[in-house]
TrEMBL record:
Protein name, entry field: Acyl-CoA thioester hydrolase
This enzyme's EC code(s): 3.1.2.-
Alphabetically ordered keywords of this record: Hydrolase
Organism from which the protein derives: Nocardioides zeae
Domain of life: Bacteria
Amino acid sequence: MEPGHEVPVAVGSTRSRVEWIDTDAAGIYHNSTVVRWVEAAEAELMRARGLSGYFPAAPRVRYEVDFLAPLFFGQEVVTTVTVVRVGRSSMRLEFEVWGEEHDGRPAYVAARGAYVTVHLDRSSADHGTGAAAAPWPADWLERLGVTGR
């Protein structure tokens, strides 16, 4: 990721529940469920900032997650996504997935990680290589709270 600006103020959060479809036969969540919860929190963040065109233009190019503890069927989950760095054409987001109090156990971090998205200029796409990375639109940077550009 190229040099950029720290942006610790852009945060999105969602509340959900571990559903049966999210679990294995023991009622413990699948690791892949974290991606869905994180994308939902990211979508909430972008909606709150008025960035409706964000997802088609900002694919993930790197994703890392540490799975710290199990989550169980029926348990409430809070997922938080924070934009921590914005470069010329890339953005780093960090996330935490919290399991809420469940069966007498206090709330805890079940997973945390980070990912990078890249802004694509789909107008310059060719059929052989796809879209090219492009600078973030100025109005998007403003909506995300990025200053000093």
